[in-house]
């Protein structure tokens, strides 16, 4: 039996705790005797979450059982963490077989020196702070979660669920993880290197109407000719003026925006339809399956067929 221990503190975000723990609890229902879930606060007293809920821990940190998976959630309480909590993590974190953080829980791991020399992520809004305050940590703001050795860090709330599902799949197999995902009405799991933002969320909305219209056009027509020249014509601007204005107002080049939109559209078709890879590549503007494969490997580290296998194994077979 694997003990999953969640560290609680005042100001913790409740979903950072309950999201991953619901996954492990679901695994225990499907495969009894696999996980034992425990929670602990500094002194064993109840803690008040950032949403006002009160969580009652099982133990104090000093009396907590040895853990297989040590879960460190985030929340407002990570801004000024109790030194005793950081000291406890510094001592006990290396003893856990798996050390997992959700959202700004990565800041607590960094404060304890456990992320030095490692690649890590956290919520996108706190990645600059993590990088600035802990230069020994290689901070990557893009993925929803990162595994580096026995340490795994994740971004916002839902990515903690994705990471927990990945860990359950690692421990108990795909079928158990799939059953839990179905019960929770979530994807089996998003790949860890999936971006925290969609293209539309990652890019700012342009202030000027012609550029906003072009952004929407790209999203609705990923298979069309989306060259700078054609897009500039839609905005009634010269290509050079359009490219500069688009980047200034959205924060990314037209080419980068087009690449993200096409990748997202292709992923949705792989997940939700039985269309073949060749057909999807044409629909999304890649032209050939090889061009789409290169785009997937570059952005996600996996080929389209493997991506589909993770989400729709029946279709991949």
UniProtKB/TrEMBL annotation:
SUPFAM superfamilies per UniProt: Class I glutamine amidotransferase-like, Homeodomain-like
GO MF terms, alphabetically ordered: DNA-binding transcription factor activity; sequence-specific DNA binding
Pfam families (UniProt xref): DJ-1_PfpI, HTH_18
Entry keyword Transcription regulation: yes
Boundaries of every HTH araC/xylS-type domain copy: 212-310
PROSITE patterns from the UniProt entry: HTH_ARAC_FAMILY_2
Family annotation (CDD domains): GATase1_AraC_1
Keywords: Transcription, Transcription regulation
UniProt keyword Isomerase, yes or no: no
PANTHER family associated with the record: ARAC-FAMILY TRANSCRIPTIONAL REGULATOR, HTH-TYPE TRANSCRIPTIONAL REGULATOR RV1931C
Protein name: Transcriptional regulator
Source organism (scientific name): Streptomyces capitiformicae
